[in-house]
Amino acid sequence: MILVIQINQQKEKRQLGMLVISLAVIIILGTSLFSGCVQQQGQQGESIVLIGRDSTSGTREFFWTFVMGKANFSASLLEKNSNGAVQQTVSQTPGAIGYVGLGYVDSTVKALKINNITANVQNVLAGTYPISRDLYMFTKGNATGATKEFILYIQSTEGQAIVTQEGYVPLQNTSHYNTSGKTLSGTLTVSGSTTVLPITDKAATAFKVLYPDLTVTVTGGGSGAGISAVSQGTADIGMSSRDLQSSEQGKGLVKHVIAKDGIAIIVNPQNTYVTGLTLAQLKSIYLGEITNWKDLSK
User: Fold this and answer.
1) What is the pairing mode between strands 214-221 and 186-192?
2) Same fold, 49-128+263-296 and 132-262
3) What are phi and psi of 156, to 5 degrees?
4) Which pLDDT does position 88 carry in this prediction?
5) pLDDT interval class at 14 (50, 70, 90)
6) CB half-sphere exposure, 230, CA atoms < 13 A
7) Could you tell me the pTM of the whole model?
């Protein structure tokens, strides 16, 4: 009886030992395989997909001048004809990066810090966010009539409330718009920048409530198109997210600042490689020198 019990105990010990060894082998193999997958993914990284604006865009012009130092963009840049198109493409494309006005940043994209500064209204007003600019309306000569009143409305406290609602940076020290003794009728045509477009669209709707006999038509097309239209007399106001180029000066255009803006650098929300970039890194990306997100997360 004692012999049988001892033999059974020895068998149980051997079986337990084999089980422990088997579990150890499984854990080691599993860890090795899992580590190999992670390492392989890390080695591959994710290719950067460059999204930008077309040649008529004031946002592109400002970005090219301020960020790129007027160096050529990478040949792989995918050009889009509006801020909305850039935003939509980035939101739907893993690995994508783009640049848009602050008003186009929402939950469908992730805005990156630049030089460790967040792209928001407060930092643009404080002058700390590095990619900031004024937004303009241009007129042929001094603004008069409905053109003058519409610009005054946008620059007023009421107009700047719309600027704020649309996610842009309002002008400071404004006053309320005064309609006393004013009647307007006819047609007012505004065209140009897709950055300024959301502000102008909302302002036009509110302005027509004040002056129901006035028709206001607002179209996009880009800053270059807007400046060209007002220069040629086919629009009363040209919207622009950049100042005049040398070729556009000397044509009698008058500049009106209607808001401020920051250019937000956006990536797909699934991007876990970076939360911010330096201006130098941003330039290298759009030059095509950095082509994979893993190279920025080392």
Assistant:
1) parallel
2) yes
3) -80, 175
4) 98
5) low
6) 36
7) 0.79
Residue 221 sits at φ, ψ, to 5 deg, of 115, -15
Q: Is the distance from CB of 296 to CB of 87 less than 8 angstroms?
A: no
Q: CA–CA separation, 289 vs 249, rounded Å?
A: 35
Residue 95: is its pLDDT beyond 70? yes
The CATH code that applies to domain 132-262 is 3.40.190
Alpha-helical regions (H) of the chain? 2-44, 58-66, 83-92, 121-126, 145-155, 157-165, 197-210, 223-232, 279-287
pLDDT, residue 8, reads: 47
CB atoms under 10 Å from CB of 184, counted, come to: 18
Give residue limits of the domains in the chain: 49-128+263-296, 132-262
Instruction: Calculate what percentage of the chain has a pLDDT beyond 90.
Output: 84
Task: List the alpha helices (DSSP H) in 166-298.
Answer: 197-210, 223-232, 279-287
If one looks up domain 49-128+263-296 in CATH, what number appears? 3.40.190.10
pLDDT at 37: 28
Structure-token match 């897709």, residue found: 194
In this prediction, residue 44 has a pLDDT band, given cuts at 50, 70 and 90, of confident
